[in-house]
Specification:
Strand 2 and strand 3 form a beta hairpin. Strands 5-1-6-13-7 form a five-stranded mixed sheet. It has a five-stranded mixed sheet with strand order 10-9-11-8-12, with helices on both faces. The protein is globular and about 55 Å long. The chain folds into two domains: 139 residues, Periplasmic binding protein-like II (D-Maltodextrin-Binding Protein, domain 2), CATH 3.40.190.10; 93 residues, D-Maltodextrin-Binding Protein, domain 2 (3-Layer(aba) Sandwich), CATH 3.40.190. By secondary structure, it is α/β, with parallel strands linked by helices.
Length: 289
């Protein structure tokens, strides 16, 4: 009888220890997950305490986000980013992103803010939080003058170049499945493909195709607006309401000095000239007119 009792005691003790270890592991996992989700974004104070903010921008989307001949980030998005860094009182670490990586860079805390011509969509709203808009756009289509595309019907049976993860890819996939899409990761690749004749036309934001066509002789934006009028806005990690509210307050305050109109004059007008009116692109105070 004593032997059986000892065996039972040993078995109960082993089970108790296993349960305790299991609970300990589960608690550790839960804490890790919680701390992980908490570490997935930084508050405004944490950013200030670190002395640096990480902002994701394009490095190849002139004139919105690009690296100039001196190796410095420039463009309309960067103009805004610089002001954010100044008003927060921190240095900026620019991180180059590709269209398809913007959401992932926020979800994995590689950046605090995305300022990369990020179009607001319902699908993206499920994964990131958008601040107030600072620009409005539609889609456009640019093509070679020798085979100018002026109507979407002309693209049937032809190849349309788009960047992965963009509203252009989504729009044409959903609304024009009859058009073959030639997809690339980077904007530089898309325009090189158009120049090389690997595709018949290219679609992205009309603001960008127009800027590119003005700088590249032999190409014209034959379709200057297609799809809905969308807005461009900063984005932060889902749930980071502290940083989101700060950005929204910043955008509202900057309206008093017409900050984004100044940004247009400095970064976009040298490219567009009189081809684009600022009121057709610029959004002040987050109010779309």
């Amino acid at each position: 009888m004593k032997k059986i009792t000892k065996k039972l005691f040993s078995a109960v003790l082993a089970l108790t220890l296993a349960f305790a270890v299991g609970c300990s592991n589960n608690e550790g996992s839960s804490k890790s997950e919680n701390s992980g989700s908490k570490a997935a974004y930084r508050t405004v104070q944490e950013i200030k305490d670190s002395g640096k903010i990480k902002i994701g921008v394009f490095s190849d989307k002139n004139p919105f986000g690009y690296i100039d001949s001196d190796g410095k980030y420039q463009g309309y998005d960067v103009y805004f980013a610089e002001r954010i860094g100044k008003d927060l009182g921190v240095e900026i670490e620019y991180i180059s992103v590709e269209p398809a990586s913007r959401v992932e860079y926020l979800e994995t805390a590689k950046v605090d803010i995305i300022l990369a011509n990020f179009t607001v969509t319902d699908e993206r709203k499920e994964k990131v939080d958008f601040a107030l808009p600072y620009m409005k756009v539609a889609l456009g289509v640019v093509s070679n003058d020798n085979n100018l595309i002026t109507d979407v019907k002309q693209l049937e049976g032809k190849k349309l170049i788009v960047a992965k993860g963009t509203t252009a890819e989504t729009y044409f996939s959903q609304n024009h499945p009859e058009i073959e899409l030639l997809k690339f990761d980077q904007y530089t690749e898309t325009f090189n493909a158009l120049i090389d004749g690997r595709g018949d036309a290219l679609s992205t934001d009309n603001t960008e195709v127009l800027a590119w066509a003005l700088q590249n002789e032999g190409f014209t934006v034959g379709i200057d607006s297609i799809g809905a009028i969308d807005t461009i806005a900063p984005a932060v990690t889902k749930g980071n309401t502290d940083l989101l509210n700060w950005i929204n307050d910043e955008i509202k305050a900057l309206a008093e000095e017409e900050f984004f109109h100044k940004g247009f004059e400095e970064t976009l007008k040298p490219v567009y000239g009189d081809a684009v009116k600022p009121e057709n692109l610029v959004v002040e105070g987050g109010i779309v007119e």
